Amino acid sequence: MNAVALLAENITKYFGQGRTAVTAVREISLEIYKGEIVLIMGPSGSGKTTLLSMLGALLRPSGGRIAVDGQEISLLSEGKLPDIRLRHFGFIFQDFNLLSALNARENVEVVLNLAGVKGRRARERAEKLLRELDLGDRLEFRPDQLSGGEKQRVAIARALANDPAVILADEPTANLDSRIGHEVMRLLRKIAREQERCVIIVSHDQRIKDIADRVLWLEDGEFRAAAARAEDPVCHMSVDIETTVAATHEGQTYYFCAEGCRAEFLADPVRFVR
């Protein structure tokens, strides 16, 4: 088995104090190995983003410990955390977060510059990463000249720039169509396997479950066994089949997030059945 890249032990996060305190994440323990892709799913407000922020040293846990590559980071001073984030983690965001005034190469270079890699070395590293992601003919393109899939590949190159052990992705397919979203996920799986990085993804997207080595269900700040779920054929949300509304068409049962989606489906089932 590969070595542990990221370790979390009994991490908790609460906001506020006393009677008004709200616990967002409750005593989560997790080991993620090099080369592994872990997908964390759950309903809105379940604590997914809070958990990802703590794992990536963006948010300090209220209790418990976190270690990356054997180095405990949960007790480090605020002054040391930016360097930890820069060198040990790569971040991929739903909205890409590319700098609009910079071209693709410069968006990757800026992260290298922050880590002390400048000039020709930074330029060559950025170009190499972008060419490996089939963006060699887009080096000088600004974000507004790129498609959604191309923007996300630039974001992946930026995440890889400083050779991090851990890639953290927050809803990386949310702004992409199904085909491009799967291409991005296959690319992340290839990176995890070939480069032995661990990749942690937070997502609502049921379509990418097959890419992950492990799928964890987070609800009310705790990992739980996932209930049997299905995808609403109208809005594509993930729904719990035991508590939601359903309809049958040609012997097949379909599940919906609400009566509105069910009514839209029944009005024209052929439109939604693949």
Query: What would CATH call the architecture of the largest domain?
Result: 3-Layer(aba) Sandwich
Fraction of residues in β-strands: 25-35%
Rg over alpha carbons: 20 Å
Give the N-terminus to C-terminus distance in angstroms: 40 Å
Report the CATH topology name of the largest domain. Rossmann fold
Write out the CATH superfamily name of the largest domain: P-loop containing nucleotide triphosphate hydrolases
Can you write the helix and strand succession as a string? EEEHEEHEHHHEHEEEEEEEH
Low confidence ranges: none
The count of DSSP E runs of length 2 or more, i.e. the number of strands, is: 14
Task: From the structure above, extract its key features.
six-stranded mixed β-sheet, 274 residues, 28% strand, four-stranded antiparallel β-sheet, 7 helices, globular, 14 strands, Ribosomal Protein L24e, Chain: T, 30% helix, Rossmann fold, 2 domains
Describe, in plain words, how this protein is organized in 3D.
A six-stranded mixed sheet has the order 6-7-8-3-9-10, sandwiched between helices. A four-stranded antiparallel sheet has the order 2-1-4-5, with helices on one face. The protein contains seven helices and 14 strands. The mean pLDDT is 92. It is globular, with a radius of gyration of 20 Å. By secondary structure, it is α/β, with parallel strands linked by helices. The chain has two domains: 4-224, 3-Layer(aba) Sandwich (Rossmann fold); 229-271, Ribosomal Protein L24e, Chain: T (Roll), CATH 2.30.170. Helix 3 crosses helix 4 (119-132), helix 3 (104-114) runs parallel beside helix 5 (148-160) and helix 5 (148-160) runs parallel beside helix 6 (178-195). It has helices at 48-55, 81-88, 104-114, 119-132, 148-160, 178-195, 259-267, and strands spanning 4-15, 22-33, 37-41, 63-68, 71-72, 89-92, 166-170, 198-202, 214-219, 222-224, 229-231, 238-240, 245-249, 252-256.
